[in-house]
Design a protein that fits this description.
Elements (H helix, E strand, L loop, with lengths): L23 H10 L9 E3 H6 L2 E3 L6 E10 L7 E12 L3 E3 L5
Antiparallel strand pairs: 1-4, 2-5, 3-4
Length: about 100
């Protein structure tokens, strides 16, 4: 497989494996989805897998999770609010190492 030409968010291989927050509920969902994979170690978004040199295999469907992100408040830009956001993650069984062409 070859690397895609565009990446939405820039991660390094190291920062792609780091998380700011952990959700026990999401960890439980991922543990049930694939008992062989460890949440927050074997599950990443598409862009995080790309940063680590992996490509999600064609036809694979990810697991959808609800997370919360902080955004500026619409009424008061000095404050932030937490809003629900949906993301899709893939386990290590759904990706393949990218082979670089030389």
């Amino acid at each position: 497989m070859t690397a895609p030409t565009t990446i939405k968010h820039q991660f390094t291989a190291e920062t792609a494996r780091q998380f700011e927050g952990y959700s026990q509920a999401n960890a439980l969902i991922l543990s049930c989805a694939c008992p062989d994979c460890i949440p927050y170690e074997d599950w990443f978004t598409y862009n995080r897998w790309l940063a680590q040199g992996y490509q999600v295999q064609r036809g694979q469907h990810g697991t959808k999770l609800e997370i919360y992100v902080e955004r500026p408040d619409r009424n008061d830009q000095t404050k932030t609010v937490r809003i629900p956001w949906h993301t899709t993650v893939f386990c290590k069984h759904q990706v393949a190492k990218i082979e670089l062409e030389q």
